[in-house]
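User: Last request for today: this protein with iron/sulfur cluster, please.
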Amino acid sequence: MPDHSTFLKNRHGRFRDSDLLRELFEMTVARCIAERLVGGHGFAVDASLIRADVHRQRSVPGEQGLPPEAVGRAVAEYLDVLDDAAFGAATPVTPKRINLTDPASRWTAATREAAFYAYSTNYLIDLDHAVIVDVEATTSVRQAEVTAQRRMIERTQARFGIWPERLVADAAYGSAPNLAWLVEDMSIEPHIPVFDKSARTDGSFERADFIYDHEDDSYICPGGKRLRRSNRNFSTPRAGVDADGSIRYRARLQDCQSCNLRQRCTPNMPARKVTRSIHEGARDMARDIATTDAYLVSRRQRKKVEMLFAHLKRILKLDRLRLRGPNGARDEFHLAAAAQNLRKLAKIIPMAQPAPA
Ligand code: SF4
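Assistant: Here's the final one, the structure of the complex with iron/sulfur cluster:
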Protein backbone atom coordinates (compact mmCIF):
# COMPACT_ATOMS: atom_id res chain seq x y z
CA MET A 1 0.00 0.00 0.00
CA PRO A 2 1.34 3.47 -0.78
CA ASP A 3 1.75 5.81 2.16
CA HIS A 4 -1.32 8.08 2.59
CA SER A 5 0.85 11.17 2.04
CA THR A 6 1.69 9.87 -1.46
CA PHE A 7 -1.83 10.72 -2.65
CA LEU A 8 -1.61 14.22 -1.22
CA LYS A 9 1.85 14.87 -2.65
CA ASN A 10 0.81 13.61 -6.08
CA ARG A 11 -2.30 15.77 -6.08
CA HIS A 12 -0.51 18.94 -5.07
CA GLY A 13 2.61 18.19 -7.09
CA ARG A 14 2.58 16.03 -10.20
CA PHE A 15 -1.14 16.14 -11.03
CA ARG A 16 -1.41 19.88 -10.62
CA ASP A 17 1.81 20.73 -12.42
CA SER A 18 0.85 18.56 -15.36
CA ASP A 19 -2.64 20.14 -15.65
CA LEU A 20 -3.94 16.60 -15.84
CA LEU A 21 -7.54 17.39 -14.85
CA ARG A 22 -7.76 20.14 -17.48
CA GLU A 23 -6.58 17.64 -20.10
CA LEU A 24 -9.07 15.07 -18.85
CA PHE A 25 -11.91 17.58 -19.15
CA GLU A 26 -10.84 18.65 -22.64
CA MET A 27 -10.73 15.00 -23.71
CA THR A 28 -14.42 14.72 -22.80
CA VAL A 29 -15.18 17.85 -24.87
CA ALA A 30 -13.17 16.51 -27.83
CA ARG A 31 -15.08 13.23 -27.62
CA CYS A 32 -18.43 15.05 -27.55
CA ILE A 33 -17.36 17.06 -30.62
CA ALA A 34 -16.29 13.86 -32.39
CA GLU A 35 -19.71 12.33 -31.61
CA ARG A 36 -21.39 15.47 -33.11
CA LEU A 37 -22.97 16.50 -29.82
CA VAL A 38 -21.58 20.04 -30.11
CA GLY A 39 -23.29 22.16 -32.76
CA GLY A 40 -21.21 25.28 -32.09
CA HIS A 41 -24.04 27.65 -33.12
CA GLY A 42 -25.26 28.80 -29.72
CA PHE A 43 -23.52 28.84 -26.36
CA ALA A 44 -24.83 29.74 -22.89
CA VAL A 45 -22.78 30.94 -19.97
CA ASP A 46 -23.52 31.15 -16.26
CA ALA A 47 -21.88 30.85 -12.86
CA SER A 48 -22.93 29.17 -9.65
CA LEU A 49 -21.76 29.57 -6.06
CA ILE A 50 -20.18 26.55 -4.36
CA ARG A 51 -19.51 26.77 -0.61
CA ALA A 52 -15.88 26.71 0.44
CA ASP A 53 -14.72 24.14 2.99
CA VAL A 54 -14.13 26.62 5.81
CA HIS A 55 -15.52 27.58 9.19
CA ARG A 56 -17.18 30.99 8.88
CA GLN A 57 -15.91 32.16 12.27
CA ARG A 58 -12.21 31.67 11.42
CA SER A 59 -12.07 35.05 9.74
CA VAL A 60 -11.05 38.68 10.11
CA PRO A 61 -12.69 41.90 8.83
CA GLY A 62 -11.66 42.60 5.23
CA GLU A 63 -10.14 46.04 5.92
CA GLN A 64 -7.87 44.44 8.54
CA GLY A 65 -6.25 42.26 5.88
CA LEU A 66 -4.63 38.86 6.27
CA PRO A 67 -2.53 38.73 9.49
CA PRO A 68 1.17 37.82 9.04
CA GLU A 69 0.75 34.66 11.12
CA ALA A 70 -1.67 33.19 8.56
CA VAL A 71 0.29 30.50 6.71
CA GLY A 72 -0.40 27.35 4.75
CA ARG A 73 -0.92 26.16 1.19
CA ALA A 74 -4.30 27.91 0.74
CA VAL A 75 -2.75 31.19 1.96
CA ALA A 76 0.16 30.83 -0.51
CA GLU A 77 -2.34 30.19 -3.34
CA TYR A 78 -4.36 33.27 -2.27
CA LEU A 79 -1.22 35.43 -2.53
CA ASP A 80 -0.44 33.90 -5.96
CA VAL A 81 -3.82 34.95 -7.43
CA LEU A 82 -4.00 38.47 -5.96
CA ASP A 83 -3.24 39.97 -9.41
CA ASP A 84 -5.39 37.53 -11.37
CA ALA A 85 -8.45 39.19 -12.97
CA ALA A 86 -10.52 36.13 -12.03
CA PHE A 87 -9.59 36.45 -8.34
CA GLY A 88 -7.85 39.25 -6.42
CA ALA A 89 -7.83 41.82 -9.24
CA ALA A 90 -11.49 41.25 -10.17
CA THR A 91 -12.73 44.20 -8.12
CA PRO A 92 -11.18 47.04 -6.10
CA VAL A 93 -13.87 46.50 -3.43
CA THR A 94 -12.43 45.13 -0.19
CA PRO A 95 -14.31 41.97 0.87
CA LYS A 96 -16.32 42.33 4.08
CA ARG A 97 -14.52 39.38 5.69
CA ILE A 98 -11.43 37.30 4.87
CA ASN A 99 -11.32 33.68 5.93
CA LEU A 100 -8.06 32.56 7.53
CA THR A 101 -8.34 28.94 6.36
CA ASP A 102 -9.05 29.72 2.69
CA PRO A 103 -8.58 33.48 2.08
CA ALA A 104 -9.30 33.26 -1.67
CA SER A 105 -12.88 32.16 -0.99
CA ARG A 106 -15.30 35.11 -1.11
CA TRP A 107 -17.71 36.17 1.62
CA THR A 108 -20.89 36.54 -0.39
CA ALA A 109 -24.63 36.84 0.04
CA ALA A 110 -25.45 36.80 -3.66
CA THR A 111 -28.29 34.28 -3.26
CA ARG A 112 -30.19 36.47 -0.73
CA GLU A 113 -29.50 33.85 1.96
CA ALA A 114 -27.20 34.36 4.92
CA ALA A 115 -23.69 35.18 3.67
CA PHE A 116 -21.15 32.37 3.31
CA TYR A 117 -17.67 31.76 1.85
CA ALA A 118 -17.76 30.53 -1.73
CA TYR A 119 -16.05 30.06 -5.07
CA SER A 120 -17.85 30.34 -8.41
CA THR A 121 -17.87 27.60 -11.00
CA ASN A 122 -18.40 29.06 -14.49
CA TYR A 123 -19.83 26.93 -17.31
CA LEU A 124 -19.83 27.62 -21.03
CA ILE A 125 -22.19 25.13 -22.64
CA ASP A 126 -23.25 24.29 -26.16
CA LEU A 127 -27.01 24.62 -26.47
CA ASP A 128 -27.60 21.57 -28.72
CA HIS A 129 -27.08 18.91 -26.02
CA ALA A 130 -25.91 21.02 -23.05
CA VAL A 131 -22.34 19.72 -23.36
CA ILE A 132 -19.98 21.75 -21.14
CA VAL A 133 -17.38 23.12 -23.56
CA ASP A 134 -15.41 24.99 -20.90
CA VAL A 135 -15.26 25.47 -17.14
CA GLU A 136 -13.42 27.99 -15.00
CA ALA A 137 -13.07 28.62 -11.26
CA THR A 138 -13.25 32.23 -10.10
CA THR A 139 -13.90 34.29 -7.04
CA SER A 140 -17.60 34.99 -6.49
CA VAL A 141 -18.00 38.50 -7.92
CA ARG A 142 -19.69 39.50 -11.16
CA GLN A 143 -16.60 41.05 -12.76
CA ALA A 144 -14.65 37.81 -12.28
CA GLU A 145 -17.45 35.81 -13.85
CA VAL A 146 -17.48 38.11 -16.90
CA THR A 147 -13.69 37.66 -17.17
CA ALA A 148 -14.22 33.89 -17.03
CA GLN A 149 -16.78 34.13 -19.85
CA ARG A 150 -14.23 35.89 -22.08
CA ARG A 151 -11.48 33.42 -21.24
CA MET A 152 -13.73 30.45 -21.92
CA ILE A 153 -14.92 31.74 -25.30
CA GLU A 154 -11.35 32.53 -26.40
CA ARG A 155 -10.01 29.21 -25.10
CA THR A 156 -12.76 27.19 -26.81
CA GLN A 157 -11.90 28.97 -30.04
CA ALA A 158 -8.17 28.31 -29.59
CA ARG A 159 -8.50 24.64 -28.48
CA PHE A 160 -11.33 23.40 -30.67
CA GLY A 161 -11.68 26.05 -33.39
CA ILE A 162 -15.34 26.74 -32.56
CA TRP A 163 -17.06 29.88 -31.42
CA PRO A 164 -20.77 30.58 -31.27
CA GLU A 165 -22.99 32.76 -33.44
CA ARG A 166 -24.95 33.73 -30.31
CA LEU A 167 -24.31 33.77 -26.59
CA VAL A 168 -27.15 33.35 -24.10
CA ALA A 169 -26.69 34.73 -20.59
CA ASP A 170 -28.43 36.61 -17.81
CA ALA A 171 -28.20 40.35 -17.02
CA ALA A 172 -24.96 39.88 -15.05
CA TYR A 173 -23.21 39.63 -18.45
CA GLY A 174 -25.08 42.59 -19.95
CA SER A 175 -22.67 45.42 -19.10
CA ALA A 176 -21.84 47.79 -21.96
CA PRO A 177 -18.12 46.80 -22.26
CA ASN A 178 -18.97 43.11 -22.31
CA LEU A 179 -21.69 43.53 -24.95
CA ALA A 180 -19.23 45.60 -27.04
CA TRP A 181 -16.59 42.87 -26.72
CA LEU A 182 -19.07 40.24 -27.91
CA VAL A 183 -20.48 42.29 -30.79
CA GLU A 184 -17.47 44.27 -32.02
CA ASP A 185 -14.51 42.01 -31.20
CA MET A 186 -16.03 38.54 -31.46
CA SER A 187 -19.00 39.04 -33.84
CA ILE A 188 -21.26 37.12 -31.45
CA GLU A 189 -24.96 38.01 -31.10
CA PRO A 190 -25.68 38.83 -27.45
CA HIS A 191 -28.94 37.19 -26.34
CA ILE A 192 -28.45 38.95 -23.03
CA PRO A 193 -30.62 41.44 -21.12
CA VAL A 194 -28.95 44.86 -21.13
CA PHE A 195 -27.55 45.87 -17.74
CA ASP A 196 -29.20 49.27 -17.41
CA LYS A 197 -29.29 51.48 -14.33
CA SER A 198 -31.04 54.41 -16.01
CA ALA A 199 -34.52 53.44 -14.74
CA ARG A 200 -36.06 55.97 -12.34
CA THR A 201 -38.47 55.26 -9.51
CA ASP A 202 -39.63 58.82 -8.77
CA GLY A 203 -41.84 59.11 -11.87
CA SER A 204 -39.50 61.52 -13.68
CA PHE A 205 -38.52 61.00 -17.32
CA GLU A 206 -36.08 58.13 -17.93
CA ARG A 207 -33.40 57.98 -20.59
CA ALA A 208 -35.73 55.79 -22.67
CA ASP A 209 -38.06 58.84 -22.93
CA PHE A 210 -35.34 60.70 -24.86
CA ILE A 211 -34.88 59.84 -28.55
CA TYR A 212 -31.33 59.54 -29.89
CA ASP A 213 -30.71 61.14 -33.30
CA HIS A 214 -27.82 59.21 -34.88
CA GLU A 215 -27.21 61.72 -37.68
CA ASP A 216 -27.05 64.73 -35.39
CA ASP A 217 -25.48 62.87 -32.43
CA SER A 218 -27.95 64.43 -30.01
CA TYR A 219 -31.00 63.47 -27.94
CA ILE A 220 -34.48 64.93 -28.41
CA CYS A 221 -36.28 65.41 -25.09
CA PRO A 222 -40.05 64.94 -24.47
CA GLY A 223 -40.36 68.74 -24.81
CA GLY A 224 -38.87 68.58 -28.33
CA LYS A 225 -35.57 70.27 -27.47
CA ARG A 226 -32.06 69.01 -28.31
CA LEU A 227 -29.56 67.72 -25.73
CA ARG A 228 -26.01 67.94 -27.06
CA ARG A 229 -22.55 66.92 -25.91
CA SER A 230 -21.75 70.59 -25.61
CA ASN A 231 -23.83 73.71 -25.98
CA ARG A 232 -20.78 75.93 -26.43
CA ASN A 233 -18.25 76.15 -29.23
CA PHE A 234 -14.78 75.43 -27.89
CA SER A 235 -11.76 76.40 -29.98
CA THR A 236 -10.27 72.97 -29.13
CA PRO A 237 -13.01 70.32 -29.44
CA ARG A 238 -13.38 68.21 -26.26
CA ALA A 239 -13.58 64.42 -26.25
CA GLY A 240 -16.44 64.56 -23.74
CA VAL A 241 -16.02 60.91 -22.68
CA ASP A 242 -15.92 60.13 -18.95
CA ALA A 243 -13.52 57.64 -17.37
CA ASP A 244 -16.35 55.07 -17.18
CA GLY A 245 -16.90 55.30 -20.95
CA SER A 246 -20.07 57.41 -20.87
CA ILE A 247 -20.87 60.61 -22.76
CA ARG A 248 -23.06 63.33 -21.22
CA TYR A 249 -25.64 65.12 -23.33
CA ARG A 250 -26.92 68.39 -21.83
CA ALA A 251 -30.04 70.44 -22.46
CA ARG A 252 -29.64 74.22 -22.72
CA LEU A 253 -30.35 76.03 -19.46
CA GLN A 254 -32.77 78.48 -21.07
CA ASP A 255 -34.77 75.58 -22.64
CA CYS A 256 -35.29 73.87 -19.28
CA GLN A 257 -35.96 77.08 -17.34
CA SER A 258 -38.89 77.95 -19.59
CA CYS A 259 -40.21 74.36 -19.97
CA ASN A 260 -43.55 73.37 -18.45
CA LEU A 261 -42.35 69.71 -18.17
CA ARG A 262 -39.48 70.70 -15.92
CA GLN A 263 -40.97 69.24 -12.72
CA ARG A 264 -41.28 65.80 -14.38
CA CYS A 265 -37.91 66.05 -16.09
CA THR A 266 -35.33 67.71 -13.91
CA PRO A 267 -36.90 68.74 -10.58
CA ASN A 268 -33.59 69.06 -8.70
CA MET A 269 -31.20 70.32 -11.40
CA PRO A 270 -31.32 73.54 -13.45
CA ALA A 271 -30.93 71.62 -16.74
CA ARG A 272 -31.35 67.97 -17.73
CA LYS A 273 -28.42 65.65 -18.52
CA VAL A 274 -28.60 62.25 -20.21
CA THR A 275 -25.68 59.81 -20.37
CA ARG A 276 -24.91 57.47 -23.24
CA SER A 277 -22.30 54.71 -23.25
CA ILE A 278 -19.62 54.71 -25.95
CA HIS A 279 -20.79 51.10 -26.42
CA GLU A 280 -24.42 52.10 -26.93
CA GLY A 281 -24.41 50.54 -30.43
CA ALA A 282 -23.83 47.09 -28.93
CA ARG A 283 -26.44 47.77 -26.24
CA ASP A 284 -28.96 48.80 -28.91
CA MET A 285 -28.25 45.56 -30.77
CA ALA A 286 -28.90 43.54 -27.59
CA ARG A 287 -32.14 45.49 -27.02
CA ASP A 288 -33.27 44.78 -30.60
CA ILE A 289 -32.50 41.07 -30.22
CA ALA A 290 -34.55 41.03 -27.01
CA THR A 291 -37.69 41.84 -29.04
CA THR A 292 -37.33 38.83 -31.37
CA ASP A 293 -38.81 35.31 -31.20
CA ALA A 294 -35.26 33.89 -31.24
CA TYR A 295 -34.66 35.63 -27.92
CA LEU A 296 -37.67 33.89 -26.35
CA VAL A 297 -36.17 30.57 -27.46
CA SER A 298 -32.80 31.61 -25.99
CA ARG A 299 -34.42 32.47 -22.66
CA ARG A 300 -35.86 28.97 -22.46
CA GLN A 301 -32.53 27.43 -23.48
CA ARG A 302 -30.72 29.32 -20.72
CA LYS A 303 -32.36 26.91 -18.28
CA LYS A 304 -30.04 24.18 -19.61
CA VAL A 305 -27.04 25.62 -17.85
CA GLU A 306 -29.06 26.13 -14.65
CA MET A 307 -30.11 22.46 -14.81
CA LEU A 308 -26.45 21.44 -15.02
CA PHE A 309 -25.75 23.39 -11.83
CA ALA A 310 -28.77 21.79 -10.13
CA HIS A 311 -27.45 18.36 -11.17
CA LEU A 312 -23.98 19.30 -9.95
CA LYS A 313 -25.27 20.17 -6.48
CA ARG A 314 -28.12 17.72 -5.95
CA ILE A 315 -26.90 14.57 -7.72
CA LEU A 316 -23.11 14.95 -7.72
CA LYS A 317 -23.39 16.58 -4.25
CA LEU A 318 -20.91 19.35 -5.07
CA ASP A 319 -22.71 21.96 -3.02
CA ARG A 320 -19.62 22.27 -0.84
CA LEU A 321 -15.97 21.91 -1.84
CA ARG A 322 -13.75 19.24 -0.29
CA LEU A 323 -10.46 20.89 -1.29
CA ARG A 324 -9.19 24.36 -0.36
CA GLY A 325 -7.58 27.20 -2.29
CA PRO A 326 -8.14 28.29 -5.90
CA ASN A 327 -6.33 25.19 -7.16
CA GLY A 328 -8.55 22.91 -5.08
CA ALA A 329 -11.67 24.61 -6.49
CA ARG A 330 -10.24 24.37 -10.02
CA ASP A 331 -9.56 20.64 -9.62
CA GLU A 332 -13.02 19.84 -8.30
CA PHE A 333 -14.80 21.94 -10.92
CA HIS A 334 -12.85 20.31 -13.76
CA LEU A 335 -13.52 16.80 -12.45
CA ALA A 336 -17.23 17.52 -11.95
CA ALA A 337 -17.60 19.03 -15.45
CA ALA A 338 -15.76 16.03 -16.97
CA ALA A 339 -18.12 13.67 -15.09
CA GLN A 340 -21.17 15.58 -16.35
CA ASN A 341 -19.92 15.41 -19.95
CA LEU A 342 -19.19 11.67 -19.66
CA ARG A 343 -22.65 11.11 -18.23
CA LYS A 344 -24.15 12.97 -21.18
CA LEU A 345 -22.12 10.89 -23.64
CA ALA A 346 -23.22 7.65 -21.97
CA LYS A 347 -26.85 8.76 -22.00
CA ILE A 348 -27.01 9.89 -25.61
CA ILE A 349 -24.63 7.38 -27.16
CA PRO A 350 -24.92 4.17 -25.12
CA MET A 351 -22.08 1.66 -25.46
CA ALA A 352 -22.70 -1.35 -27.66
CA GLN A 353 -24.02 -4.34 -25.73
CA PRO A 354 -21.42 -7.13 -25.36
CA ALA A 355 -22.12 -10.10 -27.62
CA PRO A 356 -23.75 -13.01 -25.77
CA ALA A 357 -21.34 -15.83 -24.85
S1 SF4 B 1 -36.98 70.21 -18.83
FE1 SF4 B 1 -35.46 70.56 -20.44
S2 SF4 B 1 -34.87 68.49 -21.12
FE2 SF4 B 1 -36.73 68.29 -19.91
S3 SF4 B 1 -38.40 68.28 -21.38
FE3 SF4 B 1 -38.13 70.42 -20.72
S4 SF4 B 1 -36.69 71.29 -22.16
FE4 SF4 B 1 -36.58 69.09 -22.42
